[in-house]
Structure formats: structure tokens, C-alpha cells
Specification:
Oligomer: heterodimer
Radius of gyration of chain A: 24 Å
Number of helices of chain B: 15
Strand content of chain A: under 5%
Order of helices and strands of chain B: HHHHHHHHHHHHHHH
Strand content of chain B: under 5%
Helix content of chain B: over 70%
Structural class of chain B: mainly alpha
Distance between the termini of chain A: 9 Å
Largest sheet of chain A: none
Largest interface: A-B, 60 and 51 residues
Radius of gyration of chain B: 23 Å
Number of helices of chain A: 11
Number of strands of chain B: 0
Shape of chain A: flat
Number of strands of chain A: 0
Amino acid sequence: MHRYLLRRLLIAVPILFGITVLSYFIMSLTPGDAVQMLISPTISQADIEIRRRALGLDQPVHVRYFRWLNELAHGNLGYSFSSGAPVTKRVGERVVPTLTLTATALALSYLIAVPIGVLVATRRYSWIDYVATFFAFLGISLPTFFLGLAGIYIFALRVHWLPVGGTITLGTDGGFLDMVHHLILPASVLAVAGAGALTRYVRSSMLEVLGQDYVRTARAKGLAEALVRRKHALRNALLPVITLAGLQIPALLAGAVITEQVFEWPGMGRLTIEAINQRDYPVLMGITLVTAVLVAVGNLLADLAYAYVDPRIHYE
Amino acid sequence: MNERVTGRPARAPATLEVGETIATAAASFWRLALRRFLRHRLAVAGLLAFATIALMAVAAPLLAPHRPTTIDVAAFQSAPSAVHPLGTDSVGRDVLSRLIYAARVSLTVGVLAVAMYVVIGTSVGAVAGYYGGAVDLALSRLMDVVLSFPPLIIILFAVSVFGRPSLWNVIIVLGLLGWPPVARLVRGQILSLRQQEFVLAGRAIGARDRAVIVRHLLPNAMAPVLVAATFGTANAILVEAALSFLGMGVQPPTPSWGNMLTDAQSLTVLERMPWLWVPPGFMILISVLAINFVGDGLRDALDPSLRLQ
């Protein structure tokens, strides 16, 4: 197990390194230079010259990359073209709303997918299996923005149960219940696609475990079917499903861009659109880097969690 | 548990297939696959729906009552009527005509972007799987890196860097960034195939690496790639729609189902003019759902574990 942990951690290093190289590469295609954006626009012209030389703007590309990486390691992601504020600050204040939204959506998708996936696995090829399959595909195929707009149309404009967007009621200081009220619709919309895919995974994972020898043994020794399913099958079937949480992070963050735009949710996704419209490349690069690192770390944690709960992982 | 023994009604009865498979020729594998596919009712329905949409895209000039970019100055944001069956949009263009023409955009993106990344992914995966060692390690880490970027965010970043957003930019960016899953798939297939006797035989008669990969390995690895490409097409259509909805994809006046929904971000349009946003939303849903069902049918039909069933 320790060998596995060590190997997995060592793999994460070149991945994180590669993420910075690819980000730098795309950034170097923008007008200007990735290093240039590290200079605060608020300082004087003379200081800018000094800073340019310190950052090696006159050096070849690999030197510039490592200087940039060094600044990155010291927490300097550059300065926003549009507001002049440090990118770390602009992106930083958007991280919590996005994490709130995506974490709620992830939890919701598991709450929907696990019971349904388990149920249909034990009733394979019944009518309920076909209905669940159809809805799972429907969830995967629904465009997030269409679902979001339809949600607003039905629940906010027609029946007035839920607000049309934002995080709190304007003109009030919100409060926990008000926030939850605003979170329901965007989180549900974001959860739908994930829930569809997850239902399929849970179903096939459960089916695979139900075909294992130890399940047959449990049945052969006369255990009640419900007990076999709950204690022998379900526990083992859920192990690979845990790692899926890590794999869902990229899709969730991508979905958040649309959900946040539709629901005026002030997270990283909405900041992405703002930054694109203002051609604010330092902010865009900051978001790209932060989300990629979140994904890499999420995958690492998922793998580690898997190794922790499943002793068979030794052999890897 | 008799339900596991009975098997899925959508699949062929086992006895029939055993008799057929004894012939073992490749042609019989594809014939069996076709038979299994035709038993998957949702997949057949999906294929029919997809064919209808494709036909609609090809015959757009014949079907559309108006030109998709013509502005009717007498009517803008007008409700459905005899002249404009699905009403007009905020500058007075016919919604039905735009809906029909937009099928061209979605299908073009879906097919071209996926074709592009299937070629890249297959090449990278074949090289990684065949040569193994350091080459495999480097290419596999490259796949991990590209996969770490949340799809829509990196695509938005790239599209905005490559100048003005357009149909072709969307295709190129999707094609350049979509390959890692295909590469992983092909790599896995090649890894399991390259130890087999027919590969050894190919090498023994002096075939070059390239010939072994292209003539012996890839044809045997293509079935799962076909399935992945089908699901990928559905996904590419979704991504194009999302990009165009956000204003970073196909630009008006060229119609795309995604950019037709952009106006509905205004609550007035959303509440008062459902004809502007409901039809394009449904078109995206139906085409993506249809292609996903085809993919599911193909997966069942081509599953190698069913070959000898």
C-alpha cells in the first residue's frame, strides 16, 4: 500500500508540471506575453523596466517559463488586465461559491444515482430498469443551459417557488436558509448530467459484484437475499464508485461555467465568461491553472481514498 | 437468479449465435453485430431520428420556408403564425428556417471534430501501446495532463486566444483537445493484442512496425473506438451548443441551436417568447439523445465479450 501511495504521488508531480507547461504554452499564443502579466500595472514606468528585466522578458522562452514558474510558486499569478487587481485575489474570491455549487451538485448526484443504480441492478431488464436507463440517457443528453433556462421558466417564473438567480435575495443580508433557497435550482441542474452517468456506473458495478463467487457463497450458505445485497454486494460495488467522484470534477467545473452564467452565480465559471469578454488573459490563465490543479488533486485524493478502502489495491 | 440466465431481450438468443459464430469470418462478426444492433429498439429509433436530422441538414434549402438570415422588417419577436410557423427572433428572422439550417452546424462540428481527434488519439494510443516503455510513460502522462483541464474551460480559453470565435475554431480546438480518451482506449487495446500470435507472425514474415500496427493491430482495436466516437459526436454537439450559447462559438447571423438560445438569457424572452428557446433546446436534446442511443446500441453490438456467446 505504501508503495502504491508513493508511486501515485510521484505520478502527480509530472502531471502538475505538465499543466503549467501547457498553460504557459497557450498563454504565450495570446497577444503580449505570460511574463508581462506578472507586472502590476499600478507601478511607475521606471519600476516596470526594472521588473521586466528581473522577470527576464528579454530571455529565451525556457528561461521565461522558469521565471514565471518561480513567481507562480511564490503565489504571483499576475495582474488582471481589466481591474489591475492580483489574479490570486480575483480568482480567490470566486473559489468558494464554485466549490459550494459543485460540491452540492456532486452530493445530489450521488444521492440520486446510488439508490437508483442499486435498485435497477437487482431488477435487471425489468420495466423499471428500462425507464431508469432512458432517464439516465436523458440526463446525459440534456444541454445544461437548456435545462437551466427551463428550470427558471418553470420554478421561478411560472410557480414562483424558487428565485431566478443570484446567491442571496438582493437588499437583504441573506442568511443560511436564503442561501439554500438560491442554491437548490442551480445545484439540481448541475447534478442532472452527473447523476445520469453515475447511475449507469453504479448499475454496472453492482451487476459485476453480484456475479462474483463470494456473493454466490453468501447465497449458498443461506443468507437472506437482502442481507447479501446490502452487506456483501453493495459495500464492494460502491468502492469503484468512490473514485468516480474524482473523475466527475472536470465535468462539474465545466458544467459550472454554464450553470453560473445562467443563474448569475458569482463563481469561477462566471468569472471565466467575464474574463473572456474583457480579453483578460491573466485571469483566464489563473482560472485554467486553478481548475486543472483542482482536477489533478481531486483525482489524486480519489485514488488515495480508493487505496485506503480497498485492501486489494496492494497488487498495483 | 434466473434473470441473469435469461439475458437481455435486446440480444440474440445464445443458441442461434453459437451456430453462426462457428463460421468465425470477420464478415460474420459484423453481421452478428448488425443483428444485435437491430434488436436494440432505442438504438434503432436513435438511428432513425439521427438520419432524419441529417436529411434535414442536407435538404435545408428545400425544407425551410424562408432564408435563415432574411430579416422580416414587418415582424420581429412575433409569435408563431401562418407565415412564420415558429415565429421570428429578436431581429425578425424566421425561427423554423434557422432551426432547420442550424442542423448543418451541429452535424459539421460533431463529425469533423470527432474525426480529427479520433485520428490523433488513435495514432498516439497505437504508438504508446506498441512501443511501451519510456514512450508509453511520456505519452500517458501527456494524456493525464490534457485530461486535467476541465473541457469547457480549456476550450473557452483556447477559442478566445485563437482570435474571433467561429465554427472552424470550435472544430479545431475540440479536435486538438479531445483525443486523450481515444488514445487511452487504443493504447489499452494494443497492449492486450500485441502479445498475440498473429502479431508475432506478422513480425516473423518481416513486416515493419508501421505495417504491423496499421494492418494487424488497429483493425482489431477499432470496435471500441467506433463506440467512443459515437458518444464523442453527441458530446461535441453539446459543447458546440454550449459555446455558441455563451457567444464563443458560431456567431449570428449564422444559425446554431446554441446561439438561438442566447436571447433567452433575458427573462422577458424566457417568460414571454417560449418559441424562441424551446424548439432549439429540444433539437439539441433530440439529436444528442439519438446519437447516445446509437452509441449504446453499438456498444452492445460490438462488445467483444459477446463475440463467442
